[in-house]
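FORM 7B: Structural annotation worksheet

SECTION A. Query
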Amino acid sequence: MIEYLNGKVARLDPALVVVECHGVGYACRISLNTYTALKGMATALVHTHLQIKEDSHTLYGFAHVHERALFLQLLGVSGVGGSTALTMLSGMTAAELQACIAQSDVARLKQLKGVGEKTANRIIVELQNKLPQLAEAAGETPGGATALRADALQALLSLGFPKAEMEKRLDRILKQEASPVSVEFLIKEALKG
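SECTION B. Predicted structure
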């Protein structure tokens, strides 16, 4: 329903961001990873998921589209609600969580708050076969360079830089780098020109 919010970061707490779009403030529950990504930004593009229940409407926000894709997959697992999924994504990055699922690492999943052995096993069984589709939905290649480029581009666009020029700069940087680099590195290099 609401794909993303692009506007001023009016308030940022470790569990909540308020994004002001055309005079309306949207409160989104966020993970610690999203909090870290948004920290220090005056404006931001936040990918969202609106969860409508009988007694509440909750807007969840994510700095990266692949984090939202994994969140949505976690919601599909029996016994995993929005709070548990958000807590899991706060305990480790989306990539780390996907690696745990791919490697059937029950012990590491159990370390996350709110995840017991049954839930960890259920997550692995239900999501292990969906990991390739998750990567494809997030626009990732096996090396992850496409997802890094997309995240860096979104950050640069939210800062007001022209899209065509930033795409050229990011493509040039990725050609020069032998292996995928961090989003932060791509942004810094693109800003250098």
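SECTION C. Observations
Residues 165 and 190 are 9 Å apart (CA to CA). DSSP finds ten helices and five strands in the chain.

SECTION D. Sign-off
Analyst initials: ____
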